[in-house]
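Re: duplicated header lines in exported structure tokens

Our pipeline writes sequence and tokens for each protein into one text file. With two proteins the header for the second block appears twice in some exports. Here is an export where it did not happen, for reference. First protein block:
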Amino acid sequence: MMVRTESLARAKSLARPEVAYVARFTAADGAGEEFKVTWSDIARDTMWLQKRFTAWGMGRGKQVLLSTSGHEGAWFLPVINALKAIGCTYAIAEAMAWDWRRSLVFHEELELYAMLGLSGEIVAEQTKCRKAADLFGDVPVLLARPAAVRQLAAGGVGAGVLTPLGPALAVQCPESPGAHIDSVRWWVAERRGRIHLSARSGGGGRGAAETGLGIEGVVLGGRCGCGSDDPRVLLS
């Protein structure tokens, strides 16, 4: 016990590396594009997400279920930090299909105000035993990945988007169509009906250059109805 305590104390005294994550996303040509995320980026993303989530009515006392995978920390650690900062009670379930029962248990046991990052795999498994409207119709805020949004719509349930978009994270606007992307961190554009994105801060790695994502959509600019100047991406 003493050795462990001394080791932890020593670790706390060491300088923290600037880079929090080296992550990867898939570009339009199928190549894996690496990008770096610093602790400063994490802090910036956390503050930005606090605004996005409070706009959806999330805050102290609200219960939230987050669906994410372990390799998605570059995108979802700021989500966790933001939920903590605004006082939400949150649970985490794996976004992959094998964990669908855990997600269902949390859903049944908690009085969920929001489900974030819901995946198509989870929706597909859960709707084998119950209708989408019965499962998700009572959750006030559903922000899901595109495949799940489509599946829920087919079952008569509306949902907004919360999803990794290349190296960025897109979060549905509660006031207007489309999902916001932080304009301080990212430049986003539409080219021939497909989304292109790059890091404004030159955040390191090949992913800092303009990259086609191979994702169909429209980029909407100008002041949004929610008051944000961040662009919105309307995915096809």
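Second protein block, exported in the same file:
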Amino acid sequence: MNEHTSDTENTARHDGSGRDEPTDLEAALAGFESLWSPRIVTRVNDYDVRIAKVAGEHLWHAHDHTDEFFMVLEGELHIALRDGEPGEERVVVLPRGSVFVVPRGVEHKPSSARGASLLLFEPSGTLTVGDRHDPVPAHVDVTTGHALGGLGDGD
């Protein structure tokens, strides 16, 4: 899906306005197949806690006003970064259980050759493609996150 979408109804929240029950991340991840299309599992203050399944490459993008937190739940994630001299790139490798924060404004491109499951933490309303990005390929969902049980779940 390449339009700006948001599906936050029935999202678990801990601010008194929604469900206030534990979420089993393994079961939540088993409930959808869509790649590069994060699900919001809960909110902490003004931040979304999202899960996503990924495989292949995302796209080069940057979030100008926020850092982006990645935790690898399953598999391995590579994040290419343009955070040094102009024209230089480096890659950080995150095996299962690793965390990494991409600082605000840094161009980055996540990828996973064999697939991975991720937990992401970022301000509510943050687009998956950031504020600046390359052309969006068809396999990348341009979204601010979908509620569990929302768009594409069970496909």
